[in-house]
Each structure stands twice: as C-alpha cells, then as structure tokens.
Amino acid sequence: MPYRRLPNTDTARIKAMKIALEKGKELPPNKLAYSSKTIVRLQKFLPQFDHNLQLYRHALTSQNKKSRDYNEIVRKARVYLTHFIRVMNMAIFRGELPAETRAFFGLATDESTVPSFNTEHDLMNWGRRIIEGEEFRIKKGGSPITNPTIAVVKVRFENFIEAWTYHNTLAKRTIDYTEKNQSLRKEADEIILKLWNEVENTHNSLPEEIRKNLCEEYGLVYFYRRGERDKPHAAE
Question: In angstroms, rounded to a whole number, what is the distance separating the alpha carbons of residues 158 and 160?
C-alpha cells in the first residue's frame, strides 16, 4: 500500500498548493474534494508565501553578489591603516618623529607593533582612533605622515563604513525574510496537511487505486515501499 509524503521543500509546497488551487478553479464547490474554507485560506495564503520566497531569494542573491565587493573594500581599508602605522613607525625609527607620536593613536610609545585589524569591529575602532589621532596631531603642529596621508586613509575608511552599513542592511533583510519564511512555512504545512486530509477523506470509500489517482489530481504525492508491485512515483 502506498504511503503519502508531505512536501519538504518550499518549491514542493508551492506546487502542492497551486495544484489544489487550480483544481478549485475547475470544479464547483459542491464537487470539490476539500472545503470552501480551505480554498479561501489557500487563495489568501499562497500569494503571500510565494511573494515572500521571491523577496528572500532576491535579497540572498544581492547579498552574495555584493560580498566580493565588500570584502575588497574591507581589505583595502585594512591595508591603508596598516601601512599608515608602519610608515609612522619607520619615521620614528629614522628619528624623523618622536616616539611619543604613537600616543596620539592610543599606542604604547615604546612598541612598534601594528594593531590588530582582523575583525570589522577592530577595523572600525582603530580606524576612527587613527584618523582622529592624526588630525589632532597635525592641529597641534605635527608634520603630516605621508604615503599614505591621513586624507587617503580616511577615504578608504569611509568607503568601508559605507559598505559595512549597506552589507549589514542586506544581511538583516535576508534574516528578516528567513524568519518570516519559517513562520509562513509552518502555516503552509498546516494548510497542506488539512487540505490533503480533506481530499483523502472525501475519497475514502473508493477502491485504493481509484482513490489514489483522484487524490493525486489534487497534488497529493504517494510512494510505494520497496518490493511493492507498483513503481514509486518520481519525487518533485
């Protein structure tokens, strides 16, 4: 005896509901194998579910496309900040700047270690500290560090901040659609289960093969167990 398998992917859920809804358009309510209440619920829910899935896919595609550009912007900001600190340290080593220069950037005056810019949080905090420190140092009469200048570093850093904001907006949008889909998916499963139960109950008194064929017209999917006489239907 075949067993029923409920949809377990969003594509299969959409297909199951569309088949049932098309059947509802073909037949008058008194000949339909499921209730008028269920068809009203289907008509209201299916477009919402389908639309949210499309929004999620679009958001995910946009996020993936922008990831490469974003990673390159982050890399450049990290490189310019690193080079700026290294140039400053070399100037100190040559005696062109006093060791106290490091204090303007929140660095120990007796260490030439370059700060860690490994995370976006580190990059953001150190970027602001370095830019503000150099601008303040110049206002106090210090000679500007060049190659790169703080102006060039600032451009790269502001590009990073702008890209980071946009990247997080895309990520949040994708998460929001994902969470919404989880809620809608649960409702879709409830609707399909109720729908399929109603269809099967309507044809319950018919012989097995006839009942199975009629139910399949409404989108129900059946599989035969290994060794049964009929071959399994292909899974959608």
Answer: 5
